[in-house]
Amino acid sequence: MNNWSNPLKLVRGFHIVELTTGTFLQGNPLKGSEVKYNVKTAKIIEADAFFPQVMYKTKDPDFTIRIYSPFVPHNLKDSSLPVIIFNFKGNGVIAISFPNITGSRRWGRVNFKVKGKVNGVLMKNLRALQSDPAYGEIFLGCEGCKTHVGHSLWVPAIKEGMTEDISVFNKLNENLEKYYIKPFAREEISGIVWKEIKGEEYFYLTWYFNGRPHNYPYGHYYENWFKSAVDVAEYVNENKPGIELDEDRDWLNEAFRNSLYVITNSWLTKDGRFAIYEDPQISLLMNTIGGMTWDGASFALLEFFPELVKKMDEYFTIYINEGEVPHDLGEESIEDPIYGASYPYSWNDLGSTWILMIFRDYKFTNDLDFLKRNYPYMKKVIDWLIRKDEDGDGIPDSKGGFDNSYDGTYMYGASSYVGSLFLCSLKAFITASKILGYDTSEYEKILDKAKETMNSLWNGRYFIAWKSGELKKESCMNSQILGEFWCDILGLGNVIDEEKVISALKSIYELNGKASKFCLVNSVNPDGSIDESTDQMKSCWPRISFAIASHMILKGMVNEGLEIARKEWDTISSRYPWNQPSKINAFNGDHFGLPYYIGSLSVYLVKYALKVRQFHP
Protein backbone atom coordinates (compact mmCIF):
# COMPACT_ATOMS: atom_id res chain seq x y z
CA MET A 1 0.00 0.00 0.00
CA ASN A 2 1.60 3.29 1.02
CA ASN A 3 3.22 2.02 4.20
CA TRP A 4 6.28 0.27 2.93
CA SER A 5 7.74 -0.93 6.19
CA ASN A 6 4.62 -2.81 7.33
CA PRO A 7 3.67 -5.54 4.84
CA LEU A 8 0.47 -7.45 5.49
CA LYS A 9 0.95 -10.25 7.99
CA LEU A 10 -2.55 -11.74 7.84
CA VAL A 11 -4.87 -11.84 4.84
CA ARG A 12 -8.24 -13.34 5.65
CA GLY A 13 -10.61 -13.99 2.77
CA PHE A 14 -8.15 -14.98 0.05
CA HIS A 15 -9.22 -18.28 -1.49
CA ILE A 16 -8.96 -20.27 -4.71
CA VAL A 17 -11.80 -22.75 -5.17
CA GLU A 18 -12.84 -25.19 -7.89
CA LEU A 19 -16.61 -24.74 -7.75
CA THR A 20 -17.91 -27.87 -9.50
CA THR A 21 -16.33 -30.08 -6.84
CA GLY A 22 -16.26 -27.51 -4.01
CA THR A 23 -12.53 -28.08 -3.59
CA PHE A 24 -10.16 -25.47 -2.15
CA LEU A 25 -6.84 -25.41 -3.99
CA GLN A 26 -5.09 -24.47 -0.75
CA GLY A 27 -3.54 -26.54 1.97
CA ASN A 28 -5.12 -24.70 4.89
CA PRO A 29 -7.84 -22.30 3.71
CA LEU A 30 -8.98 -21.46 7.25
CA LYS A 31 -5.58 -20.66 8.75
CA GLY A 32 -6.75 -17.13 9.61
CA SER A 33 -9.88 -18.24 11.45
CA GLU A 34 -10.27 -18.48 15.21
CA VAL A 35 -12.51 -21.52 14.77
CA LYS A 36 -11.57 -24.08 12.15
CA TYR A 37 -13.46 -26.98 10.60
CA ASN A 38 -12.86 -29.51 7.88
CA VAL A 39 -13.10 -28.38 4.28
CA LYS A 40 -12.40 -30.20 1.06
CA THR A 41 -8.91 -29.52 -0.34
CA ALA A 42 -6.91 -30.86 -3.24
CA LYS A 43 -5.31 -34.22 -2.46
CA ILE A 44 -1.84 -33.07 -3.56
CA ILE A 45 -0.44 -29.55 -3.85
CA GLU A 46 3.12 -29.20 -5.12
CA ALA A 47 4.75 -25.76 -4.94
CA ASP A 48 7.83 -24.51 -6.77
CA ALA A 49 9.07 -21.01 -5.92
CA PHE A 50 11.25 -19.28 -8.48
CA PHE A 51 11.05 -15.54 -7.88
CA PRO A 52 9.00 -13.64 -8.92
CA GLN A 53 6.58 -16.53 -9.32
CA VAL A 54 5.23 -19.59 -7.56
CA MET A 55 4.05 -22.57 -9.59
CA TYR A 56 1.45 -24.86 -8.01
CA LYS A 57 0.37 -28.24 -9.31
CA THR A 58 -2.73 -29.78 -7.77
CA LYS A 59 -4.15 -33.28 -8.04
CA ASP A 60 -7.85 -34.10 -7.74
CA PRO A 61 -8.74 -31.67 -9.18
CA ASP A 62 -5.87 -31.31 -11.63
CA PHE A 63 -4.61 -27.78 -12.24
CA THR A 64 -1.37 -25.94 -12.87
CA ILE A 65 -1.47 -22.48 -11.30
CA ARG A 66 1.26 -19.98 -12.05
CA ILE A 67 1.15 -16.94 -9.78
CA TYR A 68 3.59 -14.15 -10.64
CA SER A 69 4.38 -10.51 -11.12
CA PRO A 70 6.08 -9.29 -14.32
CA PHE A 71 9.82 -8.60 -14.47
CA VAL A 72 11.07 -7.22 -17.77
CA PRO A 73 14.68 -5.97 -17.90
CA HIS A 74 15.05 -2.47 -19.35
CA ASN A 75 11.31 -1.93 -18.99
CA LEU A 76 10.73 -0.23 -15.67
CA LYS A 77 7.05 0.39 -16.36
CA ASP A 78 6.19 -3.28 -16.82
CA SER A 79 8.51 -4.36 -14.00
CA SER A 80 6.80 -2.09 -11.47
CA LEU A 81 3.19 -2.89 -12.32
CA PRO A 82 0.97 -3.23 -9.24
CA VAL A 83 -0.33 -6.64 -10.21
CA ILE A 84 -0.34 -10.31 -9.29
CA ILE A 85 -1.27 -12.55 -12.22
CA PHE A 86 -2.96 -15.93 -11.77
CA ASN A 87 -2.53 -18.19 -14.79
CA PHE A 88 -4.66 -21.37 -14.60
CA LYS A 89 -4.33 -24.42 -16.80
CA GLY A 90 -6.91 -27.16 -16.50
CA ASN A 91 -10.66 -27.71 -16.77
CA GLY A 92 -13.29 -26.64 -14.27
CA VAL A 93 -14.84 -23.55 -12.70
CA ILE A 94 -12.36 -21.47 -10.74
CA ALA A 95 -13.33 -18.84 -8.16
CA ILE A 96 -10.93 -16.43 -6.45
CA SER A 97 -11.75 -14.23 -3.48
CA PHE A 98 -9.79 -11.36 -1.95
CA PRO A 99 -10.61 -9.05 0.96
CA ASN A 100 -11.26 -5.34 0.72
CA ILE A 101 -8.36 -3.96 2.79
CA THR A 102 -8.54 -0.38 1.57
CA GLY A 103 -8.42 2.23 4.30
CA SER A 104 -6.71 1.57 7.61
CA ARG A 105 -10.12 1.14 9.23
CA ARG A 106 -12.96 -0.96 7.85
CA TRP A 107 -15.65 1.71 7.93
CA GLY A 108 -16.30 3.13 4.49
CA ARG A 109 -15.22 0.02 2.59
CA VAL A 110 -17.34 -0.68 -0.46
CA ASN A 111 -17.22 -3.18 -3.34
CA PHE A 112 -18.41 -2.32 -6.85
CA LYS A 113 -19.22 -4.61 -9.75
CA VAL A 114 -17.18 -3.77 -12.86
CA LYS A 115 -18.14 -4.88 -16.37
CA GLY A 116 -15.97 -4.05 -19.36
CA LYS A 117 -12.80 -5.21 -21.07
CA VAL A 118 -12.06 -6.97 -17.79
CA ASN A 119 -14.90 -7.87 -15.42
CA GLY A 120 -14.43 -7.95 -11.69
CA VAL A 121 -14.84 -6.40 -8.26
CA LEU A 122 -13.43 -2.96 -7.50
CA MET A 123 -12.76 -2.45 -3.79
CA LYS A 124 -12.52 1.05 -2.32
CA ASN A 125 -12.98 2.94 0.92
CA LEU A 126 -15.15 6.05 0.63
CA ARG A 127 -14.18 7.40 4.05
CA ALA A 128 -10.41 7.03 3.86
CA LEU A 129 -8.41 10.25 3.59
CA GLN A 130 -5.44 10.74 1.26
CA SER A 131 -3.19 10.90 4.32
CA ASP A 132 -4.15 7.29 5.13
CA PRO A 133 -1.39 4.83 4.11
CA ALA A 134 -4.14 2.48 2.91
CA TYR A 135 -5.88 5.09 0.74
CA GLY A 136 -6.48 3.59 -2.68
CA GLU A 137 -8.25 0.75 -4.44
CA ILE A 138 -7.97 -2.94 -5.31
CA PHE A 139 -9.38 -4.79 -8.29
CA LEU A 140 -9.90 -8.52 -8.73
CA GLY A 141 -11.06 -9.76 -12.10
CA CYS A 142 -10.62 -11.50 -15.42
CA GLU A 143 -11.83 -11.27 -18.98
CA GLY A 144 -15.52 -12.26 -19.03
CA CYS A 145 -15.68 -13.51 -15.46
CA LYS A 146 -18.69 -13.37 -13.14
CA THR A 147 -18.64 -11.38 -9.91
CA HIS A 148 -19.97 -11.49 -6.36
CA VAL A 149 -19.44 -8.16 -4.57
CA GLY A 150 -21.30 -8.81 -1.30
CA HIS A 151 -19.33 -11.32 0.70
CA SER A 152 -19.23 -10.64 4.45
CA LEU A 153 -16.39 -12.95 5.33
CA TRP A 154 -15.85 -12.69 9.12
CA VAL A 155 -18.79 -14.13 11.02
CA PRO A 156 -19.57 -15.69 14.43
CA ALA A 157 -18.95 -19.41 14.58
CA ILE A 158 -21.74 -21.79 15.61
CA LYS A 159 -20.62 -22.06 19.25
CA GLU A 160 -18.09 -19.35 19.99
CA GLY A 161 -15.36 -17.27 18.37
CA MET A 162 -15.16 -15.95 14.82
CA THR A 163 -14.53 -17.79 11.60
CA GLU A 164 -14.44 -17.21 7.87
CA ASP A 165 -17.67 -17.76 5.98
CA ILE A 166 -16.59 -20.02 3.14
CA SER A 167 -20.10 -21.32 2.59
CA VAL A 168 -20.52 -18.36 0.24
CA PHE A 169 -18.91 -20.39 -2.54
CA ASN A 170 -22.07 -22.53 -2.58
CA LYS A 171 -24.37 -19.51 -3.07
CA LEU A 172 -22.62 -16.96 -5.26
CA ASN A 173 -24.81 -14.10 -6.45
CA GLU A 174 -23.78 -12.18 -9.54
CA ASN A 175 -26.73 -9.75 -9.42
CA LEU A 176 -25.42 -7.32 -6.78
CA GLU A 177 -23.92 -4.10 -8.19
CA LYS A 178 -22.54 -2.72 -4.93
CA TYR A 179 -21.98 -3.76 -1.32
CA TYR A 180 -20.73 -1.59 1.53
CA ILE A 181 -20.06 -1.86 5.24
CA LYS A 182 -22.92 -0.12 6.97
CA PRO A 183 -22.20 2.51 9.65
CA PHE A 184 -21.24 1.00 13.01
CA ALA A 185 -20.96 -2.52 11.56
CA ARG A 186 -17.89 -4.67 12.28
CA GLU A 187 -17.89 -6.44 8.94
CA GLU A 188 -14.95 -7.55 6.88
CA ILE A 189 -15.88 -7.89 3.23
CA SER A 190 -14.35 -9.42 0.15
CA GLY A 191 -14.98 -9.68 -3.56
CA ILE A 192 -15.25 -12.92 -5.50
CA VAL A 193 -14.85 -13.62 -9.22
CA TRP A 194 -15.29 -16.91 -11.07
CA LYS A 195 -15.09 -18.36 -14.56
CA GLU A 196 -15.26 -21.69 -16.30
CA ILE A 197 -11.84 -22.73 -17.56
CA LYS A 198 -11.37 -24.90 -20.61
CA GLY A 199 -7.63 -25.05 -21.04
CA GLU A 200 -6.16 -21.75 -19.85
CA GLU A 201 -7.31 -18.48 -18.25
CA TYR A 202 -5.80 -15.44 -16.55
CA PHE A 203 -7.07 -13.68 -13.43
CA TYR A 204 -5.65 -10.39 -12.11
CA LEU A 205 -5.27 -8.85 -8.69
CA THR A 206 -4.30 -5.19 -9.19
CA TRP A 207 -4.05 -2.21 -6.89
CA TYR A 208 -3.68 1.55 -7.09
CA PHE A 209 -2.69 3.25 -3.86
CA ASN A 210 -2.25 6.95 -4.52
CA GLY A 211 -2.35 8.33 -1.00
CA ARG A 212 0.17 10.78 0.37
CA PRO A 213 0.78 9.73 3.98
CA HIS A 214 3.35 11.63 6.03
CA ASN A 215 5.88 8.81 5.87
CA TYR A 216 5.57 8.28 2.13
CA PRO A 217 4.49 11.53 0.42
CA TYR A 218 6.13 10.77 -2.93
CA GLY A 219 3.57 8.77 -4.90
CA HIS A 220 4.20 5.59 -6.88
CA TYR A 221 5.91 5.24 -10.23
CA TYR A 222 2.85 3.53 -11.70
CA GLU A 223 0.85 6.74 -11.20
CA ASN A 224 2.65 8.08 -14.29
CA TRP A 225 0.94 5.49 -16.47
CA PHE A 226 -2.39 4.60 -14.90
CA LYS A 227 -5.38 6.23 -13.24
CA SER A 228 -6.96 3.26 -11.47
CA ALA A 229 -6.61 -0.41 -10.57
CA VAL A 230 -8.95 -1.27 -13.43
CA ASP A 231 -6.61 0.60 -15.81
CA VAL A 232 -3.77 -1.66 -14.66
CA ALA A 233 -5.82 -4.83 -15.14
CA GLU A 234 -6.85 -3.83 -18.67
CA TYR A 235 -3.24 -3.03 -19.58
CA VAL A 236 -1.96 -6.36 -18.23
CA ASN A 237 -4.78 -8.29 -19.92
CA GLU A 238 -3.97 -6.71 -23.28
CA ASN A 239 -0.16 -6.82 -23.12
CA LYS A 240 0.50 -9.96 -21.02
CA PRO A 241 3.90 -8.82 -19.64
CA GLY A 242 5.88 -11.78 -18.32
CA ILE A 243 9.14 -12.70 -16.62
CA GLU A 244 12.19 -12.25 -18.84
CA LEU A 245 14.90 -13.72 -16.66
CA ASP A 246 17.28 -16.65 -16.97
CA GLU A 247 15.15 -19.79 -16.50
CA ASP A 248 18.04 -22.19 -15.76
CA ARG A 249 17.43 -24.22 -12.61
CA ASP A 250 21.02 -24.78 -11.54
CA TRP A 251 21.64 -23.88 -7.88
CA LEU A 252 23.35 -20.58 -8.66
CA ASN A 253 20.58 -19.18 -10.82
CA GLU A 254 18.04 -20.33 -8.25
CA ALA A 255 20.08 -18.51 -5.61
CA PHE A 256 20.13 -15.36 -7.72
CA ARG A 257 16.46 -15.48 -8.76
CA ASN A 258 15.21 -16.14 -5.25
CA SER A 259 17.47 -13.45 -3.79
CA LEU A 260 15.71 -10.92 -5.99
CA TYR A 261 12.99 -10.92 -3.33
CA VAL A 262 14.84 -8.03 -1.67
CA ILE A 263 13.61 -5.59 -4.32
CA THR A 264 10.09 -6.03 -2.95
CA ASN A 265 11.30 -4.11 0.13
CA SER A 266 11.73 -0.98 -1.94
CA TRP A 267 10.34 2.41 -2.89
CA LEU A 268 9.93 3.56 -6.49
CA THR A 269 8.56 7.07 -6.44
CA LYS A 270 6.42 8.83 -8.99
CA ASP A 271 9.46 10.88 -10.07
CA GLY A 272 11.55 7.73 -10.51
CA ARG A 273 13.66 7.62 -7.35
CA PHE A 274 14.39 4.10 -6.15
CA ALA A 275 15.51 2.89 -2.73
CA ILE A 276 15.69 -0.43 -0.89
CA TYR A 277 15.38 -0.72 2.86
CA GLU A 278 18.58 -1.85 4.54
CA ASP A 279 15.98 -3.99 6.27
CA PRO A 280 12.26 -3.20 6.54
CA GLN A 281 11.77 -4.02 10.22
CA ILE A 282 14.63 -2.75 12.38
CA SER A 283 16.99 -0.21 10.79
CA LEU A 284 14.56 1.18 8.16
CA LEU A 285 17.44 2.97 6.39
CA MET A 286 17.21 3.47 2.64
CA ASN A 287 20.00 2.54 0.19
CA THR A 288 22.64 1.96 2.84
CA ILE A 289 26.08 1.76 1.19
CA GLY A 290 29.30 0.15 2.35
CA GLY A 291 30.23 -3.48 2.92
CA MET A 292 28.37 -4.77 -0.18
CA THR A 293 24.91 -3.55 0.85
CA TRP A 294 23.25 -1.29 -1.77
CA ASP A 295 26.63 -1.41 -3.52
CA GLY A 296 26.16 -5.19 -3.75
CA ALA A 297 22.50 -5.13 -4.80
CA SER A 298 23.06 -2.47 -7.44
CA PHE A 299 25.41 -4.67 -9.49
CA ALA A 300 22.46 -6.85 -10.51
CA LEU A 301 20.07 -3.95 -10.92
CA LEU A 302 22.61 -2.16 -13.10
CA GLU A 303 22.28 -4.97 -15.63
CA PHE A 304 18.48 -4.75 -15.66
CA PHE A 305 17.78 -1.04 -15.09
CA PRO A 306 21.02 0.90 -15.59
CA GLU A 307 19.44 4.36 -15.69
CA LEU A 308 17.70 3.72 -12.39
CA VAL A 309 20.93 2.71 -10.66
CA LYS A 310 22.90 5.61 -12.12
CA LYS A 311 20.21 8.02 -10.99
CA MET A 312 20.31 6.80 -7.40
CA ASP A 313 24.10 6.59 -7.18
CA GLU A 314 24.31 10.15 -8.49
CA TYR A 315 21.55 11.17 -6.09
CA PHE A 316 24.05 10.77 -3.24
CA THR A 317 25.88 13.87 -4.52
CA ILE A 318 23.08 16.05 -3.15
CA TYR A 319 24.05 14.98 0.36
CA ILE A 320 27.86 14.87 0.14
CA ASN A 321 28.91 17.13 3.00
CA GLU A 322 32.30 18.73 2.38
CA GLY A 323 33.44 15.44 0.92
CA GLU A 324 31.80 13.11 3.41
CA VAL A 325 29.44 10.59 1.83
CA PRO A 326 26.38 9.66 3.90
CA HIS A 327 25.71 6.14 5.11
CA ASP A 328 22.24 6.08 3.49
CA LEU A 329 19.45 8.31 2.19
CA GLY A 330 17.52 8.42 5.43
CA GLU A 331 15.46 6.52 7.96
CA GLU A 332 12.24 5.76 6.09
CA SER A 333 13.19 8.72 3.95
CA ILE A 334 15.15 9.48 0.80
CA GLU A 335 15.81 13.04 1.89
CA ASP A 336 17.31 12.82 5.41
CA PRO A 337 20.58 10.86 5.23
CA ILE A 338 22.59 9.67 8.20
CA TYR A 339 26.34 10.35 8.14
CA GLY A 340 27.77 7.25 9.69
CA ALA A 341 25.17 5.12 11.44
CA SER A 342 27.21 5.34 14.66
CA TYR A 343 27.27 9.15 14.90
CA PRO A 344 29.37 11.14 15.75
CA TYR A 345 31.96 8.91 14.08
CA SER A 346 32.41 9.56 10.36
CA TRP A 347 32.87 6.35 8.45
CA ASN A 348 35.99 5.95 6.35
CA ASP A 349 34.82 3.25 3.92
CA LEU A 350 31.68 4.95 2.53
CA GLY A 351 33.50 7.51 0.39
CA SER A 352 35.66 4.84 -1.22
CA THR A 353 32.60 2.69 -1.88
CA TRP A 354 30.69 5.55 -3.50
CA ILE A 355 33.60 6.48 -5.79
CA LEU A 356 33.83 2.86 -6.91
CA MET A 357 30.08 2.76 -7.55
CA ILE A 358 30.24 5.88 -9.71
CA PHE A 359 33.22 4.58 -11.69
CA ARG A 360 31.47 1.23 -12.06
CA ASP A 361 28.35 2.89 -13.46
CA TYR A 362 30.49 4.73 -16.00
CA LYS A 363 32.50 1.62 -16.85
CA PHE A 364 29.44 -0.61 -17.36
CA THR A 365 27.45 1.93 -19.40
CA ASN A 366 30.18 3.98 -21.17
CA ASP A 367 28.31 7.13 -20.16
CA LEU A 368 31.05 9.76 -20.29
CA ASP A 369 28.66 12.59 -19.43
CA PHE A 370 27.76 10.73 -16.24
CA LEU A 371 31.45 10.55 -15.30
CA LYS A 372 31.96 14.24 -16.11
CA ARG A 373 29.00 15.31 -13.95
CA ASN A 374 30.17 13.29 -10.98
CA TYR A 375 33.91 13.88 -11.23
CA PRO A 376 33.92 17.08 -9.12
CA TYR A 377 32.17 15.15 -6.33
CA MET A 378 34.57 12.25 -6.69
CA LYS A 379 37.39 14.73 -6.16
CA LYS A 380 35.74 16.20 -3.07
CA VAL A 381 35.30 12.75 -1.62
CA ILE A 382 38.82 11.52 -2.36
CA ASP A 383 40.27 14.72 -0.90
CA TRP A 384 38.16 14.24 2.24
CA LEU A 385 39.46 10.68 2.58
CA ILE A 386 43.03 11.90 2.17
CA ARG A 387 42.46 14.40 4.98
CA LYS A 388 41.37 11.49 7.16
CA ASP A 389 44.98 10.27 6.98
CA GLU A 390 46.40 12.17 9.95
CA ASP A 391 49.55 10.10 10.43
CA GLY A 392 50.71 10.45 6.82
CA ASP A 393 50.82 6.76 5.95
CA GLY A 394 48.58 7.22 2.90
CA ILE A 395 45.52 5.41 4.32
CA PRO A 396 42.56 7.02 6.15
CA ASP A 397 43.02 6.45 9.87
CA SER A 398 40.76 4.09 11.77
CA LYS A 399 40.09 5.44 15.24
CA GLY A 400 37.95 2.73 16.77
CA GLY A 401 34.48 3.99 17.57
CA PHE A 402 32.86 1.80 14.96
CA ASP A 403 33.97 4.14 12.16
CA ASN A 404 33.25 1.89 9.18
CA SER A 405 30.71 -0.68 8.05
CA TYR A 406 31.93 -3.04 10.78
CA ASP A 407 30.08 -0.80 13.19
CA GLY A 408 30.30 -3.16 16.13
CA THR A 409 34.07 -3.71 15.89
CA TYR A 410 36.97 -1.45 16.82
CA MET A 411 39.79 -0.94 14.31
CA TYR A 412 42.77 1.35 14.75
CA GLY A 413 45.40 2.94 12.57
CA ALA A 414 45.84 1.28 9.18
CA SER A 415 43.08 -1.26 8.46
CA SER A 416 43.46 -3.69 5.56
CA TYR A 417 39.72 -3.50 4.82
CA VAL A 418 39.65 0.31 4.80
CA GLY A 419 43.05 0.54 3.10
CA SER A 420 42.19 -1.87 0.31
CA LEU A 421 38.98 0.00 -0.55
CA PHE A 422 40.78 3.33 -0.44
CA LEU A 423 43.59 2.10 -2.69
CA CYS A 424 41.18 0.93 -5.36
CA SER A 425 38.98 4.02 -5.12
CA LEU A 426 42.09 6.18 -5.50
CA LYS A 427 43.11 4.18 -8.55
CA ALA A 428 39.58 4.57 -9.97
CA PHE A 429 39.76 8.31 -9.34
CA ILE A 430 43.18 8.56 -11.02
CA THR A 431 41.86 6.60 -14.01
CA ALA A 432 38.80 8.88 -14.24
CA SER A 433 41.08 11.93 -14.02
CA LYS A 434 43.19 10.69 -16.92
CA ILE A 435 40.09 9.94 -19.02
CA LEU A 436 38.93 13.53 -18.46
CA GLY A 437 42.39 15.05 -18.94
CA TYR A 438 43.27 16.10 -15.38
CA ASP A 439 46.70 15.98 -13.75
CA THR A 440 47.11 13.04 -11.37
CA SER A 441 50.71 13.38 -10.16
CA GLU A 442 49.90 14.30 -6.55
CA TYR A 443 47.37 11.52 -6.23
CA GLU A 444 49.79 8.97 -7.64
CA LYS A 445 52.27 9.89 -4.90
CA ILE A 446 49.59 9.21 -2.31
CA LEU A 447 48.77 5.92 -4.01
CA ASP A 448 52.42 4.84 -3.78
CA LYS A 449 52.52 5.72 -0.09
CA ALA A 450 49.26 3.87 0.57
CA LYS A 451 50.65 0.79 -1.18
CA GLU A 452 53.66 0.80 1.14
CA THR A 453 51.40 0.94 4.19
CA MET A 454 49.13 -1.77 2.84
CA ASN A 455 52.16 -3.99 2.22
CA SER A 456 53.32 -3.36 5.80
CA LEU A 457 50.22 -5.29 6.91
CA TRP A 458 51.42 -8.37 5.03
CA ASN A 459 52.44 -11.25 7.31
CA GLY A 460 53.62 -13.62 4.60
CA ARG A 461 50.22 -15.27 4.13
CA TYR A 462 47.63 -12.51 4.27
CA PHE A 463 47.06 -8.89 5.24
CA ILE A 464 46.36 -8.60 8.97
CA ALA A 465 43.25 -6.76 10.15
CA TRP A 466 44.98 -3.59 11.38
CA LYS A 467 47.98 -2.06 13.09
CA SER A 468 48.51 1.18 15.01
CA GLY A 469 52.01 1.82 16.27
CA GLU A 470 52.97 -1.21 18.32
CA LEU A 471 49.39 -2.44 18.49
CA LYS A 472 48.13 -4.85 15.89
CA LYS A 473 45.27 -7.24 15.23
CA GLU A 474 46.67 -10.24 13.39
CA SER A 475 43.41 -11.92 12.47
CA CYS A 476 42.55 -12.88 8.90
CA MET A 477 39.49 -10.92 7.77
CA ASN A 478 37.68 -12.14 4.67
CA SER A 479 37.30 -8.52 3.45
CA GLN A 480 41.00 -7.66 3.75
CA ILE A 481 41.36 -7.11 -0.02
CA LEU A 482 37.79 -6.21 -0.90
CA GLY A 483 39.17 -3.23 -2.84
CA GLU A 484 41.11 -5.63 -5.06
CA PHE A 485 37.83 -7.33 -5.91
CA TRP A 486 36.46 -3.95 -7.06
CA CYS A 487 39.62 -3.20 -9.07
CA ASP A 488 39.42 -6.60 -10.71
CA ILE A 489 35.75 -6.42 -11.63
CA LEU A 490 36.22 -2.86 -12.97
CA GLY A 491 39.24 -3.80 -15.08
CA LEU A 492 41.58 -1.48 -13.18
CA GLY A 493 44.25 -4.12 -12.57
CA ASN A 494 45.94 -4.93 -9.29
CA VAL A 495 46.91 -2.32 -6.76
CA ILE A 496 48.99 -4.77 -4.74
CA ASP A 497 51.12 -7.59 -6.13
CA GLU A 498 49.31 -10.45 -7.82
CA GLU A 499 51.05 -13.13 -5.76
CA LYS A 500 49.88 -11.45 -2.55
CA VAL A 501 46.32 -11.25 -3.84
CA ILE A 502 46.34 -14.97 -4.63
CA SER A 503 47.99 -15.86 -1.32
CA ALA A 504 45.46 -13.78 0.63
CA LEU A 505 42.54 -15.43 -1.18
CA LYS A 506 44.02 -18.88 -0.53
CA SER A 507 44.42 -18.00 3.16
CA ILE A 508 40.81 -16.80 3.32
CA TYR A 509 39.72 -20.06 1.72
CA GLU A 510 41.82 -22.23 4.05
CA LEU A 511 41.25 -20.28 7.27
CA ASN A 512 37.93 -18.42 7.07
CA GLY A 513 36.35 -20.98 4.75
CA LYS A 514 37.26 -24.01 6.85
CA ALA A 515 36.42 -22.44 10.23
CA SER A 516 32.68 -22.99 9.80
CA LYS A 517 30.71 -25.69 8.02
CA PHE A 518 27.95 -23.18 7.40
CA CYS A 519 29.58 -20.10 5.89
CA LEU A 520 32.66 -17.96 5.27
CA VAL A 521 33.60 -16.48 8.66
CA ASN A 522 34.29 -12.74 8.77
CA SER A 523 37.42 -13.08 10.88
CA VAL A 524 39.57 -15.93 12.16
CA ASN A 525 42.69 -16.05 14.28
CA PRO A 526 46.04 -16.99 12.68
CA ASP A 527 45.54 -20.60 13.80
CA GLY A 528 42.18 -20.79 11.99
CA SER A 529 39.96 -20.59 15.07
CA ILE A 530 37.00 -18.22 14.90
CA ASP A 531 37.71 -14.70 16.11
CA GLU A 532 35.16 -14.20 18.88
CA SER A 533 36.13 -10.64 19.76
CA THR A 534 32.79 -9.24 18.52
CA ASP A 535 29.52 -10.57 17.12
CA GLN A 536 30.50 -9.22 13.71
CA MET A 537 33.85 -10.95 13.66
CA LYS A 538 32.48 -14.34 14.71
CA SER A 539 29.64 -14.21 12.19
CA CYS A 540 29.42 -14.42 8.41
CA TRP A 541 28.04 -11.67 6.17
CA PRO A 542 26.60 -13.36 3.06
CA ARG A 543 27.04 -10.22 0.97
CA ILE A 544 30.79 -10.22 1.72
CA SER A 545 31.04 -13.98 1.32
CA PHE A 546 29.59 -13.91 -2.19
CA ALA A 547 31.83 -10.99 -3.17
CA ILE A 548 34.92 -12.87 -1.96
CA ALA A 549 33.77 -16.04 -3.74
CA SER A 550 33.41 -14.08 -6.97
CA HIS A 551 36.88 -12.59 -6.47
CA MET A 552 38.31 -16.09 -6.16
CA ILE A 553 36.59 -17.04 -9.40
CA LEU A 554 37.91 -13.96 -11.19
CA LYS A 555 41.43 -14.88 -10.03
CA GLY A 556 41.16 -18.43 -11.35
CA MET A 557 40.22 -20.12 -8.08
CA VAL A 558 36.94 -21.24 -9.62
CA ASN A 559 36.38 -24.40 -7.59
CA GLU A 560 37.26 -22.68 -4.33
CA GLY A 561 34.97 -19.75 -5.08
CA LEU A 562 32.07 -22.00 -6.01
CA GLU A 563 32.60 -24.09 -2.89
CA ILE A 564 32.44 -21.00 -0.67
CA ALA A 565 29.35 -19.64 -2.45
CA ARG A 566 27.54 -23.00 -2.51
CA LYS A 567 28.11 -23.60 1.20
CA GLU A 568 26.74 -20.16 2.05
CA TRP A 569 23.69 -20.63 -0.17
CA ASP A 570 22.99 -24.13 1.14
CA THR A 571 22.77 -22.67 4.65
CA ILE A 572 20.49 -19.86 3.50
CA SER A 573 18.24 -21.90 1.22
CA SER A 574 17.67 -24.67 3.75
CA ARG A 575 16.67 -22.26 6.52
CA TYR A 576 15.59 -18.78 5.40
CA PRO A 577 15.71 -18.40 1.58
CA TRP A 578 13.43 -15.33 1.46
CA ASN A 579 14.71 -13.73 4.62
CA GLN A 580 18.47 -13.59 4.20
CA PRO A 581 19.94 -12.03 7.34
CA SER A 582 22.72 -9.50 7.62
CA LYS A 583 24.69 -12.06 9.64
CA ILE A 584 24.86 -15.84 9.92
CA ASN A 585 26.01 -17.45 13.15
CA ALA A 586 29.25 -19.17 12.16
CA PHE A 587 28.88 -21.78 14.89
CA ASN A 588 25.42 -23.11 14.05
CA GLY A 589 24.24 -21.35 10.88
CA ASP A 590 21.35 -19.59 12.61
CA HIS A 591 19.71 -16.38 11.40
CA PHE A 592 21.52 -13.51 13.07
CA GLY A 593 21.30 -9.75 12.79
CA LEU A 594 19.01 -7.66 10.59
CA PRO A 595 16.29 -9.46 8.57
CA TYR A 596 15.48 -9.26 4.83
CA TYR A 597 18.87 -7.69 4.25
CA ILE A 598 19.56 -5.31 1.37
CA GLY A 599 22.79 -7.11 0.41
CA SER A 600 20.99 -10.36 -0.44
CA LEU A 601 21.49 -9.77 -4.16
CA SER A 602 25.28 -9.91 -3.96
CA VAL A 603 25.08 -13.60 -5.00
CA TYR A 604 24.72 -12.08 -8.49
CA LEU A 605 28.45 -11.31 -8.33
CA VAL A 606 29.24 -15.03 -8.40
CA LYS A 607 27.08 -15.45 -11.48
CA TYR A 608 28.76 -12.43 -13.08
CA ALA A 609 32.28 -13.66 -12.30
CA LEU A 610 31.55 -17.02 -13.93
CA LYS A 611 30.28 -15.19 -17.00
CA VAL A 612 33.52 -13.21 -17.17
CA ARG A 613 35.50 -16.45 -16.84
CA GLN A 614 33.16 -18.13 -19.39
CA PHE A 615 32.65 -20.96 -16.95
CA HIS A 616 29.41 -22.84 -16.32
CA PRO A 617 28.91 -24.46 -12.89
Give a written overview of the molecule.
The protein has helices spanning 76-79, 229-239, 251-259, 294-304, 306-315, 350-365, 368-387, 416-436, 441-456, 482-489, 498-512, 542-554, 558-575, 604-613; strands at residues 15-18, 23-24, 44-49, 53-59, 63-68, 83-99, 109-114, 119-125, 137-142, 146-152, 154-156, 162-164, 178-180, 189-208, 266-268, 274-276, 398-399, 412-415, 466-468, 471-473, 476-477, 523-524, 539-540, 583-585, 591-592. It is of the alpha+beta class. Strands 1, 2, 3, 4, 5, 6, 7, 8, 9, 10, 13 and 14 form a twelve-stranded antiparallel beta sheet that branches. Helix 5 (306-315) runs antiparallel to helix 6 (350-365), helix 6 (350-365) runs antiparallel to helix 7 (368-387) and helix 8 packs antiparallel against helix 9 (441-456). The mean pLDDT is 95. Residues 44-239 form the Glycosyl-hydrolase family 116 N-terminal domain. GO terms for molecular function: beta-glucosidase activity. This is Glycosyl-hydrolase family 116 catalytic region domain-containing protein. InterPro entries: 6-hairpin_glycosidase_sf (IPR008928), 6hp_glycosidase-like_sf (IPR012341), GH116_catalytic (IPR006775), GH116_N (IPR024462), Non-lysos_glucosylceramidase (IPR052566).
